[in-house]
């Protein structure tokens, strides 16, 4: 699996390629939830999400292979941009396999970083094709089921502990589980905090896997498309079993209500995949005390204006 040393090594490896994003205390949310609430603003990361951490750590660790054969990745959005940007900066040929429903702003950004994009009807087909390209010599950068990717994502957890040493709780979104895994090892190997996993209805592969005691394949239906992994992996499921204090599945509508609350009161725009952490914290409010120091990871902010307007009209005005 991964260790604290793996994550510390990743932090040094990617230091010159990613931003160290801020963690801020929100007075509004602290008063609302009756505890000290902090926001890890990974929305200000390069490409607008945490994914560049894992992408750079994987590619830099196997750079010679990437130079020889190029890079391939499967993604519904943020990972696509991260791999495309990493490839652009490192001068690599990059191929992204994604679903036809990828939002236009993700697609435009990914192509803008110079990647070739192939649109497919099914993510299972995309993973099959990615493994074929891997056998032909490309470096496959998996969106979550890779120790190097997990370790890269875990560098975010190191920053949280540096900024909030009195930390007691962390809320983290779960798609395939890479961010959760890296964050869990980075933080809980140094401090025994409560780690709260969060998913949205229709993108709840981890909750279903925990209930079944094995990965379960789903067809994601949530508007939180960047949480839409078709399944978790044995590795991320194992780390969830070891480290999660709780997993909360929130409806899309609550994630959107939290998104608008963050926009109106904190002045930051997130994706539903990030704002769902606030929605979950509101649900879990009864577990908090004034002495608790709680970080909500806002993992991404790549929400297009068209989608924002559509969600507001369809979900919040109905």
What are the main properties of this structure?
318 residues; alpha/beta; Rossmann fold; 2 domains; 4-stranded parallel beta sheet; 10 strands; globular
Write structural notes for this entry.
- By secondary structure, the protein is α/β, with parallel strands linked by helices.
- The chain folds into two domains: 4-49 and 148-316, 3-Layer(aba) Sandwich (Rossmann fold); 52-141, Rossmann fold (3-Layer(aba) Sandwich).
- The chain has helices at 4-14, 27-33, 51-61, 63-69, 78-90, 104-112, 123-135, 147-163, 178-188, 205-212, 234-243, 252-266, 272-283, 305-316, and strands spanning 23-25, 36-41, 71-74, 94-99, 116-120, 139-141, 169-173, 194-200, 244-250, 293-298.
- It has a six-stranded mixed sheet with strand order 1-2-10-7-8-9, sandwiched between helices. A four-stranded parallel sheet has the order 5-4-3-6, sandwiched between helices.
Chain-wise SSE layout:
Layout: H1 4-14, E1 23-25, H2 27-33, E2 36-41, H3 51-61, H4 63-69, E3 71-74, H5 78-90, E4 94-99, H6 104-112, E5 116-120, H7 123-135, E6 139-141, H8 147-163, E7 169-173, H9 178-188, E8 194-200, H10 205-212, H11 234-243, E9 244-250, H12 252-266, H13 272-283, E10 293-298, H14 305-316
Parallel strand pairs: 2-10, 3-4, 3-6, 4-5, 7-8, 7-10, 8-9
Antiparallel strand pairs: 1-2
Helix pairs in contact: 1-3, 1-8, 3-5, 3-8, 5-6, 8-9, 9-11, 12-13, 12-14
């Amino acid at each position: 699996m991964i260790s604290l040393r793996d994550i510390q090594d990743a932090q040094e490896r990617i230091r010159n390629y990613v931003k160290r994003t801020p963690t801020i205390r929100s007075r509004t949310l602290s008063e609302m939830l009756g505890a000290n609430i902090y926001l890890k603003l990974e929305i200000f990361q390069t490409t607008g999400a945490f994914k560049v951490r894992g992408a750079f750590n994987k590619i830099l660790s196997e750079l010679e292979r990437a130079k020889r054969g190029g890079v391939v990745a499967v993604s519904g959005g943020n990972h696509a941009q991260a791999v495309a940007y990493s490839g652009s900066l490192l001068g690599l040929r990059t191929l992204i396999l994604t679903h036809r429903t990828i939002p236009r702003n993700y697609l435009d950004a990914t192509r803008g970083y110079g990647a070739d994009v192939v649109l497919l009807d099914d993510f299972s087909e995309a993973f099959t094709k990615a493994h074929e390209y891997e056998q032909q010599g490309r470096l496959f950068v998996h969106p979550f089921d890779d120790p190097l990717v997990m370790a890269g994502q875990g560098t975010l957890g190191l920053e949280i502990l540096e900024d909030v040493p009195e930390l007691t709780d962390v809320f983290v979104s779960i798609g395939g589980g890479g961010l959760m895994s890296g964050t869990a090892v980075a933080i809980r190997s140094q401090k025994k905090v409560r780690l709260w996993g969060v998913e949205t209805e229709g993108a709840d592969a981890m909750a279903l896997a925990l209930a079944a005691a094995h990965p379960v394949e789903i067809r994601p239906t949530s508007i939180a498309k960047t949480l839409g992994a078709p399944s978790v992996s044995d590795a991320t499921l194992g780390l969830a079993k070891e480290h999660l204090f709780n997993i909360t599945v929130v409806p899309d509508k609550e994630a959107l209500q939290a998104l608008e609350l963050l926009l109106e009161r904190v002045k930051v725009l997130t994706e539903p995949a990030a704002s769902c952490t606030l929605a979950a914290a509101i649900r879990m409010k009864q577990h908090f005390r004034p002495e608790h120091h709680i970080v909500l990871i806002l993992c991404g902010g790549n929400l297009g204006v068209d989608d924002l307007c559509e969600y507001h009209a369809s979900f919040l005005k109905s």
